[in-house]
Design goal:
63 residues, mainly alpha
Length: 63
Amino acid sequence: MSSERVGPAYRDAGTIRERAAADRERLARELAAAKAKLPRQQKNAAATQRRIAELQDELSSEP
């Protein structure tokens, strides 16, 4: 069995970090992850838009 502290964030020296600093670091990590996902999501959105256009073309060309 193991345990992990889930309370306040600590530095190596054991002093409590400011909550705002810990929040900024978390937000920076989340931002980096979101930016990394964006190109893939944009590519998928573009493919979906092309498919929608194809389907609309098919529907409009049918009798």
